[in-house]
UniProtKB/TrEMBL annotation:
GN (gene name): LOC107909720
Pfam families, alphabetized: DDE_Tnp_4
Originating species: Gossypium hirsutum (Upland cotton)
Protein name per its UniProtKB record: DDE Tnp4 domain-containing protein
Gene Ontology cellular component annotations, sorted alphabetically: nucleus
InterPro entries membership: HARBI1-like, HARBI1_dom
Cofactor(s) the protein requires to work: a divalent metal cation
Length: 104
């Protein structure tokens, strides 16, 4: 598990889990273990998380059952419609920061 800021700098990592461990299990363990010093989001701020993470205060995941991935918006109907799709489109665009951070 890893978290990064918008400057593409990792602010938290939690390595050592097997590849089959579910995201929510790793995340909840990171929150519970005080010695890991997980950097909680400041009041009024949020961390973007993917759909494998639990929905809880301070963490924003995408709406399920709505288009999400950027290629989905490029195929067929290009229009983003409705509040949930607009949010998912923005969420997916912002999520690319973590993808690029891992790439760098």
């Amino acid at each position: 598990m890893a978290a990064c800021d918008f400057n593409m700098c990792f602010i938290f990592t939690f390595p050592g889990w097997e590849g089959t461990a579910h995201d929510s299990r790793i995340f909840l363990q990171a929150l519970r273990k005080q010695e890991l010093k997980f950097p909680h989001p400041p009041p009024g701020k949020y961390y973007l998380v993917d759909s494998g993470y639990p929905q809880m205060a301070g963490f924003l995941g995408p709406y399920r059952g709505e288009r999400y991935h950027l290629p989905d918006f490029r195929r067929g109907n290009h229009q983003v419609s409705g509040k949930k799709e607009i949010f998912n489109h923005a969420h997916s665009s912002l999520r690319s920061v973590i993808e690029r951070t891992f790439g760098v």
